[in-house]
Amino acid sequence: MAQLSFKAAGLAMGVTGTLAFAAPALAQQDTEAMQRQLDSLRAQVERMEQQLDAQQSTTTADSGQDTAQTRDLAEENRSLIESIQNSQFSGTLQMKGVYNDWDQVDKDTGGDMNFGKFTLGVDGQHGDFLYSFEYRFYDGYQFLKKGWMGYQASENDTVKVGLVQAPFGNMDYGYLGWYGNLPYLAGFNDNQNAGIKWDHSQGAWDTSLAFFKSDQLGDSNEHYGANAIGGTTDAVDVDSQGVLNDSNPDAARGNQGNTEENQLAGRVAYTFGQGTDYTTEINFSAKGGQLYNNQTNDSGSNWQAAVGLNGSYGSWLTQLQATAYEYDAENPDIDESGISDDVIQIGAFNFNYLIPAEGQMYSASVGYSMNVNWGDIDNLYFYNDFSYISPNGDYSPNAGGFGENVDDPMLNDLGMKVTAGPYYAWFSVVSNKNALGYFTSPDDDGWHTSLQTNFGLNF
After folding, report:
1. C-alpha R_g of the chain
2. Is there a contact between 268 and 258 (Cβ–Cβ < 8 Å)?
């Protein structure tokens, strides 16, 4: 603005100088004519000054607008940078070694070593908004393990929407080792469902309520937690007693077609010794709702209830849980599915298997964590998980549930974990008797053992 004012002042001085040099000549002219010329020149100077002021005002406004736009852009960039800084990216690359005592190839070769899994995850918060995501890759299949958006409604309340963990039993997993236990394999503990969940924490009390529209994102068995399989494949050449026609090489069992829909779940827990190194959590939980059959288009029902104890005593950990459950399904005729009504067909990790349609499950776990300073090794962790199923009525996991009745399923996982910074290794001795035929273990009333090593790194 000062520069423009100097220009106006210079112009005025130049005009005044011109009049001064012209004064002797003008003195010869008529006084009124001279006055008219002077007034005209003064008017021109005023108009030019007004134009210069208008130009300066426009330049200032444009500069202010540019500054405001720059400020808005900087604020958006700052917000984006803060979101990235508040996000925690993680991943896992894992290999595994397996020796199964029932596998002749493993006996001949001393076991097998292959790819375990690769995971990618992100967790973060932006203001009061939360988010969490994890995707997993396995040999031949992949799936979303979890994926939700959340809102921190208050210091004590959080709402999550998406594929979230069901509030049931001992959290987060329901076991302390690597392999898992029967309540987990049956789909009760550490199970993700699609819906909305509310978590409330107040002192020693923790309460969760949830509504799940469906059990998973789709009816396949390519997911983390076990759920009923809602497939619609019919059996081929199976009679009303569930017997396959051995003379037909295409004879096969189909799907029961059940899927859990419109489920309600709730969990209440109280922790004794809250805020200390010696805590005991007692929890009660229940879940149930519609069991829709995609083949009969009829709805049954299902429910599960559990009481659990989750203890942490210095370096020692323990978990106890008792679970009762029932699936009251509207299944298709046996010759359509090839599966007995005494069992429920469930699936996870690209694998289907059968559990009793009604029964009780019991689990007990103990763990011990020991920090060490052995070079790069900084922690040793020892654990044992035992679980047991007591079916109501007859149960066979074989031949679509029509095989010979077997003893009550039992599973035990004894092992240790070695941690060295981001690297880890699990060593497990997994023994089972009729444990749902999981990972091809025989259900023949005998004990079978699998030696498993899983090692990798977290990043």
Report:
1. 37
2. no
For the stretch 335-364, pLDDT in tens is 999 999 999 999 999 889 999 999 999 999
Q: What is the pLDDT of residues 204-223, one digit of tens each?
A: 999 999 999 998 877 788 88
- Which position has the token pair 């969760």? 208
What global pTM score does this model have? Answer: 0.81
What are the tens digits of pLDDT across the range 352-403? 999 999 999 999 999 999 999 999 999 999 999 999 999 998 899 989 999 8
CB atoms within 10 A of CB 431: 18
254 in Cβ contact with 277 (< 8 Å)? no
- Per-residue buried b or exposed e for 215-251, using 16+ beta carbons within 10 Å of the residue's own CB: bbbebebbbbbbbbbbbeebbebbeeebbbeeeeeee
Say if CB 215 and CB 263 are below 8 A apart. Answer: yes
Burial class (CB in 10 A: 0-12, 13-18, 19+), 122: middle
- Classify residue 13 as left (phi > 0), alpha (psi -120 to 50) or beta: alpha
How would DSSP label each residue in 127-145?
TTEEEEEEEEEETTEEEEE
CB atoms within 10 A of CB 95: 14
Q: How many helices, marked H, and strands, marked E, lie in the chain?
A: 5, 19
- Phi and psi for 23 in degrees, rounded to 5? -60, -45
The strand pairing partners of 148, in sequence order, are 132, 162
